[in-house]
Amino acid sequence: MSPTPTKSLNPLSPKERIKVPRQLMPEQPPCERNKNFSEVNLGFDAELARQEALRCLECAKPTCTDNCPVGVDVKKFVQLIVAGDFLAAAAKMREANVLPAITGRVCPQEDQCEGSCLLAKKVKPLGIGYLERFIADYEQRVGIQLPPKPTPTGKKVAIVGSGPSGLTVAGDLIQKGHQVRVFEALHDLGGVLVYGIPEFRLPKQIVREQLDVMGKMGVEFETDVVVGRTVTIDELMNEEGYDAVYIGTGAGLPQFMGIPGEHLNGVYSANEFLTRINLMKAYKFPQYDEPMLDLHGKDVAVIGGGNTALDSIRSALRLGAHKAYVIYRRSDAEMPARAEEVHHAKEEGIDFQMLTAPVEFLDNGKGWLTGARCVRMELGEPDASGRRRPVPVKGSEFDLPLSVAIMAIGTTANPIVQSTTPGLGTDKRGYIVADPDKQRTTRKGVFAGGDIVTGAATVILAMGAGRRAAASIHEYLTTGDW
Amino acid sequence: MFKIIDAHFLAPGIKRFVIEAPRIARKQKPGQFVILRIYEEGERIPITIENSDPVKGTISIVVQSAGKTTRLLNSLETGDSIQDVVGPLGKPSEIEKFGTVVVIGGGVGTAMAYPSAAAFKRAGNRVISIIGGRTKELVILEKELREVSDAVLITTDDGSYADKGFVTDKLRQLIQNGTPIDLVLAIGPIVMMKAVAEVTRKDNIRTVVSLNPIMIDGTGMCGGCRVLIDGKSEFACVDGPEFDAHRVNFEVLVQRNAMYREPEQKSLAEFERVMLEKQKAREGADDEAGQCAIAQGGQK
Fold first, then answer.
1. Residue A125 DSSP code
2. B207-210 sheet: strands from edge to edge
3. Between chain A and chain B, how many beta carbons pairs sit less than 8 Å apart?
4. In Å, how far is A482's CA from the nearest CA of chain B?
């Protein structure tokens, strides 16, 4: 590993840097990609990466790092790209982020690092996500340099759930010399990264490679274990000798609207729809045994405006849907999905029905969905979330013919761990209570983070919680202080 | 991988497996189920746990051949392995001293009702078991149930064994005879559970059924197993699988379970075709071997 440059190797003056245009991400053409599951973004090559890296203003007080939930030292790793030392850049990245190939693909950079980039005040922000992805992919291609093995501490940590937050805790703690074992309820590792996020946004091969790195670093994995059912937190600590436990069980049961017809055949939750496709490979039926409804030539709608909604409807389009709608009750400005996904979805031909909500699902009299009765909305006064509340427009009802409707309107807390762990505090919605600095729960030695604490959020916020938890678990294991 | 320690048929198309699964065996309680996936391309299916042996670290399940996955499963033998077995899932049966408990098992449902009957007996209840099957061979676990029940009543649809009729006939008789019943647990085909619910509804006898909706993860994530309970969605994997029979919308359960009938039938037909080809190939090979043996002067 080469030493970190002490001063900038960037030959351009700040004025010249601003003149360099933001490099465009090469991508599959919309008319091709909306028929396949291959990745939309193709990634930078070394030349594009160095060109983009030259745009960094190297701020004295970089706000990009402050706005990164895991605190990636953006300036340093970008300087290393300018210097052409991509492996050193990747090593720098790993200090703060053990899953860069994943976050480089799925983070909402516009709200975080890139959102606070000084360049954005005059031109387009630095393509930090693209650069992050580049160095992670580069490192994977030439062979990952594992960090040196630390001295074992003799402490054991159990991690519940192999999603982004659990993996972050595992990756950070294994580098501190603790023995780490990750328990996963499903048959495959990765949590939402494998059952939720589709191949075209995050290839499963990337997830497997990152898991492989974890395995090589010494992290142990056990699938088919539902903590709370197969083994309890107390049993892990009292009988299996774990000194600390991190709970990262992720998103829970899908919410439904409570409108008539939600039980009809053809109405899916987004979690089920995506799990059938991503985890169970139902689109390869009958090569794979798990079935799903045939979408070829069918009209499909997703209800909701988040990333899960877009992942669902873009998957439906790729599986042959004739019409593919997003039905969202607010307007474009309030959509929680990543800007890039909305842009990609529009290019691919998704029909956005904004300010619209279903009030009833219609059927053929035999239990099968035939459409949705919808109503148009207008925005009223701001609600508790600070966003303007959608109000139905009188007399605006219309029927939209549909064969499949996918509900992507959020999730509730999964109750399994909470209900089987005495003394584990929960809030009134059933989520686990953990302090925001150290992720400590109400049970000594038990930490929690990610969606099971915050409710549905993003991969990177779950990783941020994991990073804080790892630091505080390490502190607890070395000092014994609670 | 989860090793099959023992596998044998209880009745035509109904097979019991003893599977090495020490973690599950330690935790299993009556009423809970596992989700299993036979091989890499397999689907995840829920199956109720019949029994477990925490000392030996094994669980037993009873499987009835229906679609491709259950047929494939029932073709496995002692020494084979199942790729994934996860559990015990779902809430355990509520077992306490109720008084008189009627446990009803229909067909393969008898295997799931049996551990609950045993648990009710251990809890000090008077247990009356009613079991039924289409025909004599499909009445299973009679001997085992007799050991844990104060009485066992049996029906067959065709009258080939015990009394001709349905389990609900026996239940109705018990009620008409004035037998005080504090709880009914019914596990079996949806039509049977629905019929039981109708019989007990007018006398307001507390009735519990174990529901078997389509399920994927079984851990409270996907929401595929939602059932309508008093008009509201509940999830069989975390809120069930046992529910108050009088609150269940059975029509919606039947309708949702039929969602994949077409692909399921396609998958089964393809499976049967492949199995038939394999069998033909085997027979062909046997024939050839036989021909060879004859050619070699019948030495074999």
1. P
2. B163-164, B151-156, B126-133, B100-106, B183-187, B207-210, B242-244
3. 128
4. 31
Nearest CA in chain A to B228: A263
Percent of chain B with pLDDT over 70: 95
Note whether B221 contacts A281, CB cutoff 8 Å: no
pLDDT tens-digit readout, A86-134: 999 999 998 889 899 999 998 889 889 999 999 999 999 999 999 999 9
pLDDT score of A98: 87
CB atoms within 10 A of CB B30: 26
The answer to whether A254 contacts B255, with C-beta atoms less than 8 Å apart, is no
pLDDT of residue A388: 85
Using left for φ > 0, alpha for ψ between -120 and 50, and beta otherwise, residue B244 falls in beta
- In the predicted structure, residue A385 carries a pLDDT above the cut 90: no
pTM here?
A: 0.91
| pLDDT (mean) for A302-318 | 96
Q: Would you report the helix, strand and coil content of chain B in percent, each value rounded to 5?
A: 35, 30, 35
Q: What is the pLDDT of residues B236-282, one digit of tens each?
A: 999 999 999 999 999 999 999 999 988 888 888 888 888 888 888 88
* Chain B hits for A290, Cβ within 8 Å: 43-44, 216
Does B266 sit within 8 Å of A286, measured CB to CB?
A: yes
User: What is the spatial distance between Cα A134 and Cα A141, in angstroms, rounded to a whole number?
Assistant: 10
The interface residues of chain B toward chain A in range 94-153, judged by CB-CB distance below 8 A, are none
Q: Name which of B27, B70, B222 to mutate to probe chain A: the one with the most chain A Cβ atoms within 10 A of its Cβ.
A: B222
Residue A340, pLDDT score? 87
% of chain B exceeding 90 in pLDDT: 80
A86-96 helix and A128-142 helix, angle to the nearest 10 degrees: 110
Instruction: Give the chain B residue nearest A269 (alpha carbons).
Output: B223
Which amino acid does the sequence have at A107? C
- For A:230-289, CB contacts with B below 8 A are 230-231, 250-254, 256, 258, 262-263, 265, 268-269, 271-272, 275-276, 279-281, 285-289
pLDDT of A117: 95
DSSP-derived pairing of the beta strands B81-82 and B2-11: antiparallel
Q: What is the mean pLDDT of chain A?
A: 93
Amino acid (1-letter code) at residue B154:
I
- Rounded distance between C-alpha atoms, residue B187 and residue B110, angstroms: 7
